[in-house]
Amino acid sequence: MIASEPGQRTERPTPCVLLAEEVWGSTLHAIRSLGRTGVPVFVITAGQGSTIYRWSRFCVAAQDITTSDPVAFMDRTRAWLDQETSPDAEVVVIPLSDRLVEYLHKTRGSTPERWKVSIPTPSVTETLLDKALSLQVAERAGLEVPPWMEVRSVDDIATTSDLVLPVVVRPTRWSSTGEDYFKVKLCHTEDQLQSVMTDAIGTGAELIVQSYINAPDEAVEFAISWRSNDRSTTASCTGRKRRQSGLEGGVMAWGETVDLPDVATGAVQFLDESGFTGLGGIEFIRSDGHLWFIEFNPRLEAIHFLATAAGVDTVLMEYNNRARGSVPPVIPVQSPAAGWVGSAWLNRLNHRPGDWRVALTDRRAFARAQRRIKAVMDPRDPLPAAMVLARLVSRGLRRVSNRRSS
Predict the structure, then answer these.
(1) Considering the domain boundaries, does residue 262 fall inside one?
(2) How many Cα neighbours within 13 Å face the side chain of 86?
(3) What is the number of domains present in the chain?
C-alpha cells in the first residue's frame, strides 16, 4: 500500500491490468515492475498464456480470452475485470501488443470511464498503427528512412520496380496481413518479390515494400521510450542488439544498453512530430554513416526489461502517470546493462544448429556484463520460468514423437 500522512487512511494502489500475448519475458517483467511496488496486477491474455503469468508471485489473477473479435474481446475483458476488481474503482489498462492497442482503439466508444487506458489520442493511435503513415511521420521528423513503397492493391505492385533488391515486405499493420499472417519477409529476387506481393494482395493484405539495409546484428539500435500524457516529460533508454534470432533479422537474442545520443535525439524528434504519449519503442540501423529509421512500436517494447535493468523503468512511469497524474521529479540516467532472451536463441539454434559456438561466446560476453537480466528467469520470482521450461520441453517431446511416428 502507498504510505500516507499520520492519521490518514492508507491509500490503496490503483490496480493495473496488462493486456498481453504469449510473450513471456515482456509480460512477466511488467508484472514484476508493478507488483514489487505493491500494485495489484491482473493479466488478460489474447490466446493461451495465463497459466504462466498466474504463477508469478506478483500476479493477482490471470485469464485467457481467445476470441479474435475486438468487440467480443473487450466485452469479456470488461466482464472479467468487473468480477475481479471493484466495479467502481479505477484501473490502469496497459496493452502489450499492436493487436491489443488496436482492440482498445477500435472500442474507445464503449470503454468504461473507470479505465485509465495507456494509448494516445485517436488520431495519433490510428497513424502509428499504420506502418506507412508511421514512415511518413519519420520523414517529416527529419529522420533518414530507407526507400519504400506502399502496396495496397494489384495496381500498386508496379510501383516497387524502382526499389533496389533485396527488399523487405511487411504488412501495413497487424490486421492487414491477409490470410497468411507474417511480420516480415525478405525478398532477394524480382520473381520472389512478385510472388510474395501477388499472393498477399490476393488475400486482402496491404503492404510496405522497403529497401533492405544489410548490416550486422550489432548495427541495430533502439530507444525504449516513455512520454507523459501531457507531453511534458520524456524518458528513454538507448542500446543495441548484439545478436538476433534470425540471420537476416528478428527479435533480440541478446543486447545491451549503450548511451547513444543521436538515437535518443531521433526518438524525441519522432515523438514530437507524431504527438505520441505513453510507452513505445523505436528502432534504427546504423550503416555507412547513416542512422536509418526502421520502425516505431506504439506500445510497450518487448525488451523493455533491459531498460528496467539499466534503471529506467518506463512501465512504472506510465502506471504512475495514468493512475496519479505524476511524473518522475528527475529522469534517471541509464546505466550499462545486458539482456538475454533464451527463447530467441533457441529459435536461432533450431534453424542453424551450428551456431552453438556463437551462443557460447555470446553467453560468456553476457556473463561479464555489470548488470544482467534474463527475459523470463528471475530468482525472486522463479516459478514462471519453471512453467515456461516445462512447456518448452513438452513441445519438444511432441515434435520428436511426431517425427518418429511419421
Answers:
(1) yes
(2) 8
(3) 3
